[in-house]
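Q: Could you fold this chain for me?
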Amino acid sequence: GLYRSQPSFREDLDHCDDLLGDHLGSSLLSVLFPTDGTASPIDHTCWTQPALFSLEYALARLWRRWGAEPVAVLGHSVGEYAAACVSGVLSLEDGLALMAERGRLMHELPAGGGMCALLTSPDRVERALAPYQGILSIAALNGPANVVVSGASVALAELTATMAGEGIHVQPLTVSHAFHSVLLEPMLADFEKRAAQVSFAAPRVPLVSNLTGRFADDSTFDARYLRDHAREPVRFLDGVRELVSYGCT
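A: Sure. Below is the predicted structure, expressed as structure tokens.
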């Protein structure tokens, strides 16, 4: 709807599509808006990641045109790249290039992993994960009773069956790979090498880090940070608490 009704939003998505052309080998817009009746490959992470980034970037630009200037920014996993662009840490060109490479490298990993949200406390999940060290990981801490677990599908099914049997609500996620888990480790070195080619600036708008749940400083972002960011849990709950302590309502 925004693409049809808001010329500036459309221009920003078109610009992202143009910049991604050399990286993706095909049009992002054709994936976002398929016209030939065929199923879109949007759920393949090589497309999901640049699509999410482009949408979030265009939305932030639209809000700013409408007068909504951020006093701080917080993303969630891929969303941190868009937040970093809004903050001034990354250029749009570098953000899109990193999204394309990150998505490609993860897409090329073997299948066989999954993710699931467990509506219970982080402490309860940590205890349940004890027998699965090196197999399953906490991928995201989204709320006081919302934890995402990621890893090998067989072990994940066993864990979630146990949790469901204890009355905990379990919600499998539609994903192509087990993000923020040990199954991503084969691509991390290659991604770090690509990220080392990017220039990072100090945040101009305060930016909360997914890795720490705290405000980033001038030295936070580098290639190693983005490597760890892909593997370690998204501390979104801590990030929201940081914004509250900063005075955000």
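A (continued): The beta strands are 73-74, 113-118, 136-143, 146-152, 170-172, 207-208.
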